[in-house]
């Protein structure tokens, strides 16, 4: 769901994105596999595949949770914030060490 929502945001705000990265190898496998997926999850996978084409993603890759720790920290800051931010041209100055 996070991949799908991220791609929807990229489409809506016309963000240039060329690489899709997730900490879920099963998501990458589902997207790379040409086997037809059945059931409720097929709608989500089909949405993601269509958004990948629309946004212009040229590479899908899996990363470890440790490699993805910066994104997790930014997400936790965003969810705990009482202010609303919309970063269109510049992002806030945040510095994190990735271990």
TrEMBL record:
It comes from the Eukaryota. This is Uncharacterized protein.
């Amino acid at each position: 769901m996070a991949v799908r929502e991220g791609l929807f945001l990229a489409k809506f705000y016309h963000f240039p994105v060329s690489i899709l990265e997730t900490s879920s190898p099963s998501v990458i496998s589902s997207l790379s596999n040409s086997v037809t997926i059945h059931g409720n999850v097929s709608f989500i996978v089909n949405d993601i595949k269509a958004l990948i084409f629309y946004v212009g993603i040229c590479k899908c890759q899996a990363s470890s949770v440790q490699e993805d720790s910066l994104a997790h920290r930014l997400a936790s800051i965003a969810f705990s914030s009482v202010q609303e931010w919309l970063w269109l041209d510049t992002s806030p100055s945040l510095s994190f060490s990735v271990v």
